[in-house]
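Class prep. Protein, please:
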Amino acid sequence: MADPSGKSPRPKVIYVMGAGHSGSTILGVTLGNCANTFFAGEVEEWLVNSGQPAIGGSERTRFWQLVREQVDCSAELFGPGPNRLLERSSAILRVDRWPRRRRIRPGYRRVAEQLFRAIARAAQAQYVVDTSHFPLRARELQQIEGIDLYLLFLVRSPERVLASELRHIRRHHRAERRAQAIRVNARLWMVHLLSVLVFLQQPRDRRLFLRHEDFLASPQTALREILDLVGSDAEIPDLTALKTGVPLLGNKLIRSDVVALEAPAVASASNSRATTMLQAPWRLIFSRLEPAVRV
């Protein structure tokens, strides 16, 4: 509903931040099954794909077309430019592109606010879940006055993140897999460093640290803490029949209409001593982040 001024209420944005392959899609789907909450998926792809969903389906297409009609976005912001300049972790290293970043930032933030308002109106929901991951995107959203931002810093065992990424190149030669492992570890360090900095800049009453493994082990506990954080009294949904909805983008999970949140299966992760050693400092740092879901 609109307020007396004719402007829609401030949407509450639940932003899931952290590295890719950390379980954000199943977390987003689960939250999206809570009352008054809409799982929008990886919203950063909205500009990349000019407001169009990357996967099909008539209901999904209709929903995002309705959203597109409510957002005033210039052609300059469409495409991969803003994602590369403002959102990806590597953007902070591209000093030569900082002038362009400063030039497009005001428009980017204006469109982001309009987009979240449009999503909330179209979904008739108060809470919008964005699983875009990027900590630098979270930093930009922190500066938008027209939304209420809540940060969920989601992490997963680095060995399992590595294993997930390496599955995409399992047909390649061993040397290529080794090079990929080095890149994954370097990227994890960058993402974790930026995520911790952004997390600590967020007000304490609007942030929460969560391990993917803890979420799977005790989803009711984790969900209740998240819902309490954002001020929702919604009941915990049926975890055996979760509707995936019409998110803009996510992993292959969203291609099913209904999924179940299952207990973690015993599966082998990447047996990488190098990854375990390289990522060891983050275990200590993460253990001290507060507030956090502890199970």
